[in-house]
User: Which sequence fits this backbone?
């Protein structure tokens, strides 16, 4: 597949960037240079330099290296060509025979690292510290790991934590967050509990209408990448009705605007609808939803900065290649 230049990504969606809590050390010149090197596509050298910085105790380097390693579509193509020893040396802290995730030692110094580690590690007996973990990840803008972590609130009967957080931060969580919000509210109701709701909803009819909106097709599409159509079918790009439904759905979600820009640069005008549908289908098949194009560490590299980088289109092309994307048609 031919690679698409990234010039048109350099200034997109800057208005979507939200203020986040700064991470101490994230503005250090050495770290900033390494991040720029990674975003520029010189990833192996950048990762090696990041590993050196992490071994020197730099917390942001530890966090970013851990998150890149945990993000399959950003690390698998590297690890598959390295030996086990090389993989451990590149991505893990030199502790024990197999190394250790860098978040473990970073957690000793950083509240963000502790919260991120909670989303990746085994939950010990007892109720997790949701009242600390959830606000921390919210403050740092780590939407993707937090939305996945919210399932833990259901398992421990603390759905109210997820519900209040998403209601109070609707712009941060977007359409995928609304789908989970609807699911969490329904779960509380099924358990016979009264869920927290927006102040302007005070009747059963209002609650039902709110739930219908939250669990709408477009919000479920944002959460899992699959769009339902008539007769209980899922839209697929090889059928005319599915192709149009997928393309229309992509156009409705700001989270998927990178697909629109990708197709505008990759394919001709007459091929736009097919490109949108084929691309979002391939990304869904890669299990990348929700927030399929998020930065590996949204607290250190904003989604918009990642989308505008030289490496982004290469990452997308690599993912599409793995899923057998047929190119413009």
Assistant:
């Amino acid at each position: 597949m031919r690679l698409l230049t990234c010039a048109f990504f350099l200034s997109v969606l800057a208005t979507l960037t939200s203020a986040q809590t700064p991470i101490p050390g994230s503005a250090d010149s050495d770290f900033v240079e390494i991040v720029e090197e990674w975003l520029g596509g010189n990833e192996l050298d950048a990762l090696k330099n990041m590993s050196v910085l992490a071994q020197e105790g730099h917390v942001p380097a530890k966090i970013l290296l851990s998150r890149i390693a945990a993000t399959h579509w950003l690390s698998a193509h590297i690890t598959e060509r390295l030996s086990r020893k090389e993989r451990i040396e590149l991505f893990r802290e030199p502790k024990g025979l197999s190394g250790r995730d860098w978040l473990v030692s970073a957690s000793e110094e950083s509240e963000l690292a502790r919260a991120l580690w909670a989303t990746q590690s085994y939950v010990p007996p007892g109720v997790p510290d949701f009242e600390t973990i959830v606000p921390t990840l919210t403050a740092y803008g780590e939407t993707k790991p937090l939305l996945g972590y919210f399932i833990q609130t259901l398992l421990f009967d603390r759905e109210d934590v997820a519900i209040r957080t998403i209601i109070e931060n609707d712009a941060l969580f977007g359409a995928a967050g609304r789908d989970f919000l609807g699911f969490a509210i329904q779960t509380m109701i099924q358990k016979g509990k009264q869920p927290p709701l927006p102040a302007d909803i005070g009747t059963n009819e209002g609650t039902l209408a709110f739930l219908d909106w939250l669990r709408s097709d477009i919000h479920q599409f944002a959460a899992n990448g699959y769009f339902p159509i008539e007769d209980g079918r899922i839209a697929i790009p090889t059928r005319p009705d599915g192709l149009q439904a997928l393309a229309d759905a992509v156009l409705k979600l700001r989270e998927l605007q990178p697909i629109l820009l990708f197709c505008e640069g990759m394919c001709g005008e007459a091929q736009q609808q097919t490109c949108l549908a084929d691309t979002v289908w391939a990304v869904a098949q890669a299990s990348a939803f929700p927030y399929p194009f998020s930065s590996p560490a949204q607290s250190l590299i904003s989604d918009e900065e990642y989308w505008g980088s030289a490496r982004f289109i290469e990452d997308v092309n690599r993912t599409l290649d793995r899923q057998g994307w047929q190119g413009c048609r």
